[in-house]
Backbone:
């Protein structure tokens, strides 16, 4: 079965979904994207799409910022996405990439007087940070302030900042880079939110700290509270707190829950997967695969049974 894309209001083979070299968003980064996972459950022969509606709500908020008119409601976007996955007949973990973009073939830096469009495609995609516990560096690139480019939206142009960070980290032999906010507080990874475990509580940067408000972040906060009785404190975090935390871990749709073993070659805790991170990771995998009935409402089945 060839992969399909939903492009210009219809399903087409992915290879045929092409845009012009003059497309506005290609030149100026005027697009908003999402990253959504579909998780393969082999016993049930089902793909569960995780928190689909919440991803499209965030996309819609980003579109409002960029003055992009979405051609579909959130419910329609959800239906289109389920149909896309069904058409592709995947039997493995997948990653779904919606993109709302300024589609005019026009030059000139602006947001106004331009046509918009929406596309979505899906590809097989396994683990992103492919290790038990990752090694991070502190990025020399800071996250921008909300009045530079709002990091609360997945604006394509903004992700140059993330790309600088990721490549710098890899060049230095790390797996991921952690960025600081304009004021110098710990902000987030290039594609993940960050959590610390301090005195048995979770601590994570607040929403107004130049972070993307992650859906995995929200999932982990809820699972920690409901299932482990662990409270989360959202407050500014100093750099030095990273090095003295009992545990650190990253969360994201691509990265799931990934424990951090080291930051700038300093061991975090005992340098191994921490107890809290390990428990949350186990719970999280159960939930996203549709194996925990309490959270099945977060999982949209792609295939009809
Ligand atoms: N921060 C950034 C910069 C990201 O790109 C992502 C990935 N979307 C996240 C955090 C995590 O967000 P989510 O859990 O919604 O995937």
Residues:
């Amino acid at each position: 079965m060839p992969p399909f894309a939903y492009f210009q209001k219809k399903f087409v083979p992915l290879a045929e979904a092409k845009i012009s070299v003059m497309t506005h968003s290609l030149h100026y980064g005027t697009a908003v994207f999402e990253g959504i996972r579909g998780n393969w459950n082999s016993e049930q022969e089902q793909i569960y799409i995780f928190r689909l509606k919440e991803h499209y709500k965030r996309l819609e908020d980003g579109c409002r910022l960029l003055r992009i008119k979405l051609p579909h409601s959130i419910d329609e976007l959800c239906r289109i996405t389920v149909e896309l996955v069904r058409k592709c007949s995947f039997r493995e973990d997948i990653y779904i990439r919606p993109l709302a973009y300024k589609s005019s073939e026009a030059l000139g830096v602006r947001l106004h007087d331009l046509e918009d469009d929406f596309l979505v495609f899906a590809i097989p995609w396994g683990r992103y940070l492919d290790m038990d516990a990752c090694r991070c560096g502190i990025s020399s690139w800071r996250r921008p302030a909300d009045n530079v480019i709002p990091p609360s939206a997945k604006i394509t142009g903004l992700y140059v900042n993330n790309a600088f960070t990721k490549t710098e980290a890899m060049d230095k032999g790390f797996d991921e880079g952690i960025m600081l906010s304009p004021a110098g507080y710990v902000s987030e990874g290039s594609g993940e939110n960050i959590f610390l475990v301090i005195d048995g509580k979770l601590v994570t940067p607040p929403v107004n700290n130049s972070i993307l408000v992650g859906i995995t972040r929200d999932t982990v906060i809820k699972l920690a509270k409901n299932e482990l009785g662990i409270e989360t404190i959202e407050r500014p975090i100093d750099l030095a707190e990273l090095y003295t935390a009992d545990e650190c871990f990253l969360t994201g749709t691509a990265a799931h829950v990934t424990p951090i073993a080291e930051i700038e070659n300093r061991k975090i805790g005992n340098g191994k997967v921490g107890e809290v991170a390990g428990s949350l990771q186990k719970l999280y995998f159960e939930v996203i695969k549709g194996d925990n009935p309490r959270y099945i409402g977060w999982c949209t089945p792609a295939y009809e049974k």
About this structure: The chain has two domains: 4-124, 134-288.
